[in-house]
Specification:
Elements: H1 2-13, E1 30-31, E2 40-43, E3 46-53, H2 58-61, E4 85-88, E5 105-114, E6 120-126, E7 132-137, E8 140-146, E9 152-155, E10 163-172, E11 197-203, E12 206-211, E13 221-229, E14 236-241, E15 246-251, E16 257-263, E17 277-282, E18 287-292, E19 297-300, E20 303-306, E21 309-310, E22 313-319, E23 321-322, E24 327-328, H3 332-345, E25 349-353, H4 359-368, E26 371-375, H5 389-404, E27 410-414, H6 426-440, E28 445-447, E29 454-456, E30 459-462, E31 473-476, E32 493-496, E33 503-507, H7 529-543, E34 549-552, E35 560-561, E36 574-575, H8 588-599
Parallel strand pairs: 22-25, 22-34, 25-26, 26-27, 27-28, 30-32, 31-33, 33-34
Antiparallel strand pairs: 1-9, 2-11, 3-4, 3-5, 5-10, 6-9, 6-11, 7-8, 7-10, 12-13, 13-16, 14-15, 14-17, 17-18, 19-20, 20-21, 23-24, 29-30, 35-36
């Protein structure tokens, strides 16, 4: 019976759904509804008034109330009027010199006109705010969100009024010991409202969420769900794919859930043919249109199979930064620039590190035929045993999956990067997280790169027990840079704790300043292009020795800002491991990798 089957999906979706109505006394944000581009949106991007609050005193002064003097003796020690303006979306660090390395509170204000529609609902949607956001509408605290790289929203139907309305957002990007990520990480801490802000109008009962993808191990069978939100949860639902003649009908249950199950002869999405179908989801009160592709990704023994055929991942790591602007990347044009470079390099996939990138990046990669590795910012020394940390991690994972799980181009969920078995509660927490991830989405591969392998006598001992919980053994190794070679690269030996799984070298490389060709070219201290070039040549020689090798992904596409890189001549606050300089110049190693990728035909 349908009701029994739907209950399975109710378990799967728990944590991905939100209440039918907002509770203004609740501090937590709602998980964002699926497919923002398919909704009726009004952009709130543009110039926002700001108050820079380095002492964090604005909360005590109740900045969001915007008090005005009432008597001649009154004065108010804050004001948005006459103050600076900042562009939204955008990081605040690159918009004003005095904010370059700022970590603290900035108050944002936006005035907008609103027509309060009858029998409609309004939601305030943020693509991302780094790191903590407190949101007020017309002096009312609507809620809070923690996490700098995932979308969230608040229902404001009962908070807005006809005519002029005011949004105030307190943003704080201060690094926290129990934050995700924590205190230390190797990228720039861009703060602010870094992605789009939209006002979304929906019907009183609307299609909140859905999952339309091929069932695991199948090339023609869709198994998914539709989730209604509102007072009328039980509705007639249809899923149409006009090009294929599909018109699947079902009724959602009393919880608003409907199981979707249909078969068809799909033209499968692939890097060579990134086919997307127009999919129309209709209820009695709502219609959503989405472009969705269909493909299969799985492992069989030590191989990765894509649409049933062996796949070799030719990748590149990318940070969400436009090096030419030395600023957070946030726009579709930023995404196009980065992905065009990756395509030119010969990549069939990109690892978006070390956090979920903008939805523009994921959607455009899919259109361009580039597979995507999505990752949450669980980086190195996370405090897994600190109160509330594992709950924060799980929420970020759910928010990432909810946004991107209809993107067939996304093939890998990565749950952490370079964590350590010696960290209290680390292994148990990530094993449990992997179980949650599989419940939410069983159709993709799961991994976590690890860098704690031993290297002795030219032998790599890949021993971490966490690998047993993942589909791919992802290994970060920097032989030739952080670890000098102990013998010839072609003679490296491997000991794998899981000898029956695919291996991906998820990071390797070394630093070079573009144009640095002076000094000994065989010494790392020269920071020369030639030294970096030799690392790539040696790594490619070593790849022939790696058992079960199913992909490589060097670190990384372009130089990026990292304040921990302190060399005054060669780094100047930049990580120089890019194959491109911060001006887009191609270093010598670029051509070595491009030639290697060209030698791997048909993704085999």
């Amino acid at each position: 019976m349908i009701a029994k089957k739907v209950n399975v999906y109710l378990i799967v979706c728990i944590g991905l759904i939100f209440n039918s109505r907002s509770n203004f006394n609740t501090a937590c944000a709602q998980s964002a509804m699926t497919n923002l581009p398919g909704r009726r949106c009004v952009s709130l991007n543009g110039q926002w008034q700001v108050i820079i609050d380095p002492m964090g005193i604005g909360t005590w002064r109740q900045v969001w109330m915007e008090k005005k003097p009432e008597k001649k003796t009154d004065f108010i020690e804050y004001s948005f009027e006459g103050g600076p303006l900042l562009k939204v979306p955008g990081d605040f660090n690159t918009q004003k010199p005095e904010l370059t390395y700022y970590e603290g509170t900035v108050w944002y204000k936006k005035t907008f006109q609103c027509r309060v529609p009858k029998n409609k609902r309004l939601f305030l949607h943020f693509g991302a705010v780094n790191y903590i956001a407190d949101v007020y509408v017309n002096s009312r605290h609507i809620g809070s969100h923690e996490g700098g790289f995932t979308p969230f929203q608040f229902e404001i139907t009962d908070a807005v009024k006809e005519g002029e309305n005011i949004i105030v957002v307190m943003v704080n990007n201060q690094r926290l010991k129990d934050g995700i990520p924590g205190l230390g990480y190797d990228w720039f801490n861009y703060g602010g409202i870094t992605r789009d802000v939209n006002l979304i109008e929906t019907a009183d009962s609307f299609i909140e969420d859905y999952f339309i993808q091929l069932k695991k191990h199948s090339l023609n069978e869709v198994a998914g769900l539709v989730k209604m939100n509102g007072a009328q949860l039980s509705q007639n639902i249809s899923v149409k794919v006009p090009e294929l003649g599909v018109d699947y009908k079902i009724k959602s249950n009393n919880d608003g859930l409907a199981e979707i199950h249909f078969t068809s002869q799909f033209k499968l999405w692939s890097p060579d043919n990134p086919k997307l179908y127009k999919v129309i989801l209709q209820s009695e009160t709502d219609t959503i249109v989405e472009n969705i592709g269909f493909r299969s990704i799985e492992t069989k023994g030590a191989k990765i199979l894509f649409n049933g055929q062996p796949l070799f991942l030719k990748g590149i790591n990318i940070h969400e930064e436009n090096p030419l602007r030395a600023a957070r990347a946030f726009s579709e044009s930023d995404a196009l620039e980065l992905l065009t470079w990756a395509k030119e390099l010969g990549c069939n996939f990109v690892r978006l590190v070390h956090y979920p990138h903008s939805e523009y990046m994921v959607r455009l990669a899919e259109k361009m035929g580039i597979m995507v590795w999505d990752e949450i910012p669980v980086y190195q020394h996370i405090e897994f045993s600190a109160p509330g940390v594992t709950e924060k991690i799980a929420l970020m994972m759910r928010e990432m999956i909810r946004r991107d799980r209809n993107r067939c181009g996304v093939v890998i969920w990565s749950l952490s990067n370079e964590t350590y078995d010696s960290t209290p509660n680390r292994t148990a927490a990530l094993i449990d997280l992997s179980r949650q991830c599989r419940m939410l989405d069983s159709t993709r591969l799961i991994t976590s790169p690890i860098c704690s392998q031993g290297y002795e006598n030219n032998t790599l001992n890949v021993w971490d027990p966490l690998y047993s919980s993942f589909d791919i053994m992802s290994i970060n190794e920097y032989l030739g840079w952080y670890s000098p070679w102990q013998g010839r690269p072609g003679d490296v030996q491997w000991k794998l704790i899981c000898g029956d799984k695919p291996v991906v070298i998820s990071e390797f490389g070394g630093e070079a300043l573009y144009g640095s060709n002076s000094g000994p070219k065989d010494e790392a201290a020269s920071w020369s292009e030639e030294y970096q070039e030799q690392i790539y040549k040696d790594q490619i020689e070593m790849f022939r020795t790696v058992p079960n090798l199913s992909g490589v992904c060097p670190w990384l596409l372009a130089d990026y800002r990292s304040p921990g890189r302190l060399h005054p001549v060669y780094q100047k606050g930049w990580n120089r491991k890019g194959l491109l300089s911060d001006r887009g110049d191609k270093k010598k190693a670029w051509y070595i990798l491009k030639t290697y990728y060209e030698s791997i035909k048909n993704n085999k």
